[in-house]
Write a structure and sequence with these properties.
single chain, alpha/beta, 8-stranded parallel beta barrel, two-stranded parallel ribbon, 14 strands, globular
Amino acid sequence: MTYFEGINKINYEGSSSTNPYAFKFYNPGEKIGGKTMEEILRFGVAYWHTFTEDLSDPFGVGTAIRPWNKFTGLDLAKARVEAAFEFFEKLGVPYFCFHDVDIAPEGSSLRESNQNIDTIVAMIKDYMKNSKTKLLWNTVNNFTHPRFVHGAASSSSADVFAYAAAKVKKGLEVGKELGAENYVFWGGREGYETLLNTDMKLELDNLGRFFHMAIDYAREIGFDAQFLIEPKPKEPTSHQYDFDVASGYAFLQHYDLQDHFKFNIEANHATLAGHTFEHELRYARVNGMLGSVDANQGHPLLGWDTDEFPSDLYATTLAMYEIIKNGGLGRGGLNFDAKVRRGSFTPEDLFRAHIVGMDSFAVGLKVAQKLMDDNALDSIIEERYSSYKEGIGREMVEGKTDFHQLEEHALALTEIKQQSGKLESIKATINQYLLTAYAGE
């Protein structure tokens, strides 16, 4: 069965193309900095938003029209697999990602749920034999069902902790079976609503224990995927323990987990934490913890997780600048954890949205690489901090000073010269690179 009638393989046609089903800037085989765009960007499709999302919101039922929705139960799950691999093939993406409940319905018991998963995993594995699309990462949904009302690994119930562990155990087995390059932990309800009824230390300790158990089991079964933590500050809980990269990194260090995890950073989650996307990327990068990216954007006028497809070229440029400085994403990738808008309800809209996202990051890649090649931003930073390259500044950096020497230096100063931050000029430079990137200049 064909689920996307009338849609052919999406090809690169260049910036002058008016074909809505063609890439204008993403050219998979084009080399940037010695690697192809496809190798660098490592795009992935989010199974949940693309194949299970119905576009409902708190004020209305779903609007999505999907040809596979005429089925139910396992038949629906099987139809989604068929549709997914048709979509991957036509879009030409190298990766996809999923939660356990995205691919298979939950049964009346954990045992039945696992049986459903086994049925669909076998089908996915069979499809993967003839597809270039691989599994970037998988995870389990330990947040939607009412049993997780008080959290999963941080739950006040030991039974829920055990149930969550059993689900992750199965998830690790699935990841190994399908050759996942990463495994993600998103603590959707690992946090609290109020401290008035919360034993924070016990919950954090339990969360640390949970991660160590996961590491041990992955080692036991020979699953060598990169483990990733995905920070989010709030929603659904008022305060989640993995608030942002900084708090997540502190948690990993405290529980001696920093050598086993990196971060999967989502743009919209950064916004909710009061940060820019590039802030979270850089904090992870400078600490050697940047693992993968969920590529989306939030709405500047809304205070919740809108998960829009990325189209802000300024943001994608600064994001790709950090990724290039990181030496790439290694085993990670750019997963489109993004959903079409409620009014974009046709199957064709799924292609249009992914094309926009892929083109936006392709532009960001090319502009960021040019900024790097020209040393356009680094030279400004080097000049601004030049006082630490010589004299007392260099001695400070090399750990050769103390307060006595610094006081002596300060007392001898007759004038302190400051430099302009040149922020407006820097932004103008980035605008110039963006505007001329595809103008042949």
